[in-house]
Write a structure and sequence with these properties.
- The structure holds 2 protein chains of 2 kinds.
- In chain A, the strands form 4 sheets. In chain A, strands 1, 2, 3, 4, 5, 6, 7 and 8 form an 8-stranded antiparallel β-sheet that branches.
- By secondary structure, chain A is α+β, with helices and mostly antiparallel strands.
- Chain A has 7 helices and 20 strands.
- Chain B has 2 domains: 45-127, 3-layer Sandwich (Rieske Iron-sulfur Protein), CATH 2.102.10; 154-370, Naphthalene 1,2-dioxygenase Alpha Subunit, Chain A, domain 1 (Alpha-Beta Complex).
- Chain B has a 7-stranded antiparallel β-sheet, with helices on one face. A 4-stranded antiparallel β-sheet of chain B has the order 2-3-4-9, with no helix packed on it.
- Chain B is globular.
- The chains are: A alpha+beta, B alpha+beta.
- Chain A binds chain B through residues 1-4, 8, 33-35, 38, 71, 105, 109-111, 113-116, 137, 140-141, 219-222, 224-227, 273, 277-279, 297-300, 302-303, and chain B through 4-5, 7-9, 73, 75-78, 80, 104, 106-110, 115-121, 123-126, 128, 142-144, 146, 372.
- The complex binds FE2/S2 (inorganic) cluster (FES) (2 copies) and fe (ii) ion.
- One FE2/S2 (inorganic) cluster binds at residues 76, 78-79, 81, 96, 98-101 of chain B.
């Protein structure tokens, strides 16, 4: 909501931190200027990351507010430690009680509308952090909702037991290693047409929901999603990017974005959201050795397939055949992309 | 108890007071947000969007094709152009007048003309709306608490046993000053001397009670001459009646800003104080005041009566006569606000006659404290 998202940076103190799964840390913060966080809101966090490069650099990351207690005096976030995602998760995991960090007040890009006839909340993996508070509010309002939570294994799924206790039959868990995989087509296929769907999860899941939504001609305004922390179709790999006109060439490490690498190399880049929504960081693709891993939600499927342009704040290049988790590509060096920038 | 710092857009620059500095001594209070406020009369909201600021929130109000009233923030997500200057489209949609983004009644973007996808964060706030008692009510606070049962009781507005009409007065004063005005009617003697004022008002005793979110002030004046306004009314029902009357004013406040006043006169000694009003005429002055800014408000009122229901003539006459009376209040309230502004270092003092108004202030103060917003306006 445009008017209410002016960032107010402030200090917050870590008051609790605990592992909820092997890779997910639950961190409770006490902000200096507490403000109630509505479901769907997130905070931005500034971190010093000494590990990613020789000099310290400031990283800005967004985390959903899992729970806001005492009118925002206790904000709970949960951080997934991906070997590669958008960096910074290591620094977050290293936080200890009493540490301080810079955060914004709760920001809202994913508001829950009160009063829909029925809701489907859909969370994949760490995406539960954006969804859990919505489920709690809908339960309190006696709304008609279902919470679908998909994950690889019980041990990987944060808050599963608490959610089961709170939501009972309204929670439907899909767990891959128990053979209860989520079938997106049947879930979307079974929806009453006036259902509002709120989702957050890996890009494969969200793309598949979007495709089914379009095919079933459901109202696009009823499909809501949170995008930050989107994963891609491929595991992040190192690749090179070149802008011939400016004589710039850079290597993009797995925990850096193409935009960051180009900025570091001295290119004067335009951007706004840095999370694949606005399209302002668009660059033109001149040549490609590899596959584009589109991680934005700005382009339509048709535009993504055309592969003429790419949102360089989130999208990457992967070696062809290099599916998520696969090792380095074709053996002819790094995947690469040649681009033109505005 | 600590007071949460105010960080929302209605924030005022002054430091929050602590709770022991009771805000009943503040000249004016902030406005609770977890409350229903009237945004407009039912007839004002149409397919052509209109703009109105309520509790410092600029709203775009319009009706969907099915007639449902909609309240969206009056600022497009993209570049904040006012949606109220846009146009309504099929169903429940409204289009921004600037670059054509289309929203539905939930404030969700459904079309972004210049691109193939919709930016997922493109929404404008949409506020709960209920239409009741000829008004369109909006809820600007926590939407999870927007229970239509909390709409104040103004049933005379639509009850077939009552007839009447009203108007809106835009007043250049804080809404609290209007509430003060209506809770203490001794001002009638001085402000409304030519219509409803009489000295018995100040001389007679009154009783204040409060319960939950309501305050009631009751005043009876027995065996008095009817002032001009009431002489005309009782003669509408009992042509030629010239005798003494028993007059009542029973002021019902419902937090945060609705005051319905049961008023009337009956032939003296015919049992009105005991409940038999058959020899009298009864009106209900319906008032609900919506803050606009810290120094302006929308004062919605109507005068309803339960006699001579068939007479449109009387309806129009009453509306005009009450309107003239309220103009006298408006002038006084605006002069008072100007004097408050011109004398920022002077305090209010309170009198015994302010008891009703002081209870109103206390209830509003509690509501503000519950919202963590107990701060006086700067
Ligand atoms: S900066 Fe917004 S999409 Fe890249
Ligand atoms: S300001 Fe509304 S579409 Fe641009
Ligand atoms: Fe008056």
């Amino acid at each position: 909501m445009a008017a209410t998202n002016i960032e107010v940076w402030q200090q917050a103190t870590v008051v609790e931190t605990a592992a909820v799964t092997e890779q997910i840390q639950r961190i409770v913060l006490r902000p200096d200027l507490p403000r109630r966080a509505d479901p769907g809101s997130h905070i931005d966090v500034k971190l010093l990351n000494g590990a990613a490069s020789l000099q310290d650099e400031v990283l800005k990351r967004s985390y959903s507010v899992v729970e806001s207690a005492d009118d925002g005096a206790r904000l709970t976030i949960s951080v997934f430690r991906a070997p590669s995602s958008r960096g910074g998760s290591l620094a977050m995991h290293a936080l200890r009680v009493g540490d301080t960090l810079q955060i914004t007040q709760p920001l809202q890009n994913f508001p829950l509308r009160i009063g829909a006839p029925r809701y489907l909340l859909l969370a994949g993996g760490i995406g539960i952090t954006a969804i859990a508070a919505m489920a709690r509010v809908l339960r309190e309002l006696h709304a008609d909702y279902t919470l679908v939570y998909a994950g690889r294994s019980r041990a990987d799924m944060a808050y599963l037991n608490e959610l089961q206790e709170l939501h009972g039959d309204r929670l439907v868990a899909h767990i891959n290693d128990e053979g209860t995989n989520l079938e997106v087509a049947s879930v979307v296929g079974a929806l009453a047409p006036d259902t509002e769907l709120y989702m957050c999860g890996p890009i494969r899941l969200m793309d598949s929901v979007r495709r089914n939504w379009l095919e079933r001609r459901l109202n696009p305004a009823n499909l809501r999603f949170e995008t930050f922390g989107n994963s891609g179709w491929y595991a992040p790999q190192e690749f090179t990017v070149r802008i011939p006109r400016l004589g710039i060439e850079a290597t993009v490490g797995p925990d850096r974005s193409m935009l960051e690498a180009l900025e570091d190399a001295g290119a004067d880049m335009m951007f706004d959201c840095r999370k694949g929504e606005c399209g302002l960081c668009e660059v033109r693709v001149l040549r490609l050795d590899g596959a584009i891993d589109h991680r934005d939600v700005f382009y339509s499927e048709r535009q993504q397939k055309a592969a003429e342009k790419i949102c360089c704040c989130v999208s990457r290049v992967a070696s062809v055949g290099g599916e998520a988790g696969a090792a380095q590509g074709s053996g002819q060096g790094l995947p690469s992309i040649v681009i033109e920038v505005p | 108890m600590s007071i949460a710092p105010v960080v929302d857009s209605t924030a005022v620059k002054s430091a929050p007071r602590t709770s022991n500095a009771s805000s009943t001594t503040n000249k004016v209070l902030g406005y609770p947000l977890n409350a229903w406020y009237v945004a407009a009369w039912d007839y004002e909201v149409t397919r052509k969007p209109m703009s109105r600021r309520i509790a410092d929130r600029p709203l775009a109000l319009y009706r969907a094709e099915d007639g449902r009233a909609v309240a969206l923030a009056d600022a497009c997500w993209h570049r904040l152009a006012p949606l109220s200057l846009g146009k309504t489209l099929a169903g429940d949609q409204i289009q921004c007048p600037y670059h054509g983004i289309i929203y539905n009644s939930a404030g969700r973007c459904v079309s972004m003309p210049a691109q193939e996808t919709i930016n997922p964060s493109a929404t404008v706030p949409s506020f709960p709306v209920v239409e009741r008692y000829r008004y369109v009510w909006v809820w600007l606070g926590d939407a999870t608490k927007a229970d239509p049962e909390l709409i104040p009781d103004m049933r005379q507005m639509t009850d077939p046993a009552w007839a009447g009409d009203g108007l809106t007065i835009p007043v250049n004063c804080n809404f609290q000053l209007v509430l003060d005005n209506l809770m203490d009617l001794t001002h009638e003697e001085f402000v409304h001397g030519s219509s409803i004022g009489q000295e018995e008002l100040s001389e007679s005793d009154f009783v204040v009670t409060h319960e939950g979110n309501t305050v009631t002030v009751t005043r009876w004046m027995l065996d008095i001459d009817a002032p001009p306004f009431w002489r005309k009314n009782i003669q509408d029902k009992f042509p030629g009646y010239e005798g003494k009357v028993d007059r009542w004013q029973i002021i019902h406040f419902e937090s945060p800003s609705t005051i319905c006043i049961d008023v009337g006169v009956a032939k003296a000694g015919t049992g009105a104080p005991g409940g038999d009003r058959s020899q009298g005429v009864n009106g209900y002055v319906m008032n609900t005041i919506s803050p606009e800014t810290a120094k302006t408000c929308h004062y919605f009122w109507a005068f309803m009566r339960n006699y001579r229901l068939e007479s449109q003539l009387i309806t129009t006459q009453l509306r005009d006569r009450v309107s003239r009376v309220f103009k006298e209040d408006e002038d006084m309230l605006e002069a008072q606000q100007a004097a408050i502004d011109a004398n920022p270092d002077y305090e209010f003092y309170n009198l015994n006659i302010d008891a009703g108004g002081m209870w109103v202030r206390r209830l509003i103060e509690r509501q503000l404290a519950a919202e963590g917003r107990l701060v006086p306006f700067a």
